[in-house]
Amino acid sequence: MLANKTALITGSTSGIGLGIAKALARQGANIVLNGFGDADGPQAEIRALGAKVAYHGADMSKPSEIEAMMNFAADSFGQVDILVNNAGIQHVARIEAFPIDKWDAILAINLSSAFHATRLALPAMRKANWGRIINVASVHGLVASAEKSAYVAAKHGVVGLTKVTALENATTGVTCNAICPGWVLTPLVQKQVDAKASANGVSNEEAKKLLLGEKEPSMQFTTPEELGELAVFFCSPAGANVRGVAWNMDGGWVAQ
Ligand code: NAD
Hints:
By secondary structure, this protein is of the alpha/beta class. Strand 5, helix 5 and strand 6 form a beta-alpha-beta unit. It is globular and about 55 Å long. The chain starts with 5 loop residues before the first strand and ends in a 7-residue tail after the last strand.
């Protein structure tokens, strides 16, 4: 379905971003990966699916590096047709104890990076009159949890940015939507499982149950594979008039 299209997924060396990259690769898209840590393994996983792959290690907190990454993607494959703004970090602390550098980093990586990548991707998408911008927000783009001020503020911002991007392009072939996962068992959440295990003196498995039990009625983690298939839907012909939604995949979290 996505042969001859190019997808750039930020923060895709791990977790949800890699899951979405693999789902888009299975549909035949060329893939540009980004993120920290090992990039060879993820590139090999994409290649094994028969897709072309390139990697750029831009730090998404730095606008100049985001610009270099967008230029690299265009030089590698022509242009970016599908942009998945996914890179994100978390820090958990009460507001009065929240480190200022963590606040700044979360706003830069989880919110401002999506603005920069979007503004740089739009001109070519508009010219082609086809584009898909998918912002990985969170249930925390819709509701809040204590001790996540920067994350919740950034993710609510991502949902707002999604709506504006959708509206400004509503009469074109460029759509923008957000995905709002509940708990997904990635390295970002494993840190929170580990903190719960040590705070409560329980095993890893017990800590997972405690985490799910607080918020997620299904008592199941959403998977990167499931989120990847939602991204594929947004890229499909049936998704052509889905604009500005924040679609949760959250085991009932936000339904409560
Ligand atoms: P993860 O830690 O597995 O992956 C995060 C990715 O972002 C990695 O590839 C990492 O290298 C990259 N990254 C981090 N800082 C970066 C930077 N400055 N520049 C470039 N890349 C950077 O986490 P994940 O759980 O897969 O999270 C992906 C997205 O999904 C995030 O936006 C997160 O907020 C969101 N999300 C996660 C969950 C969850 O339960 N895991 C739930 C809702 C939303």
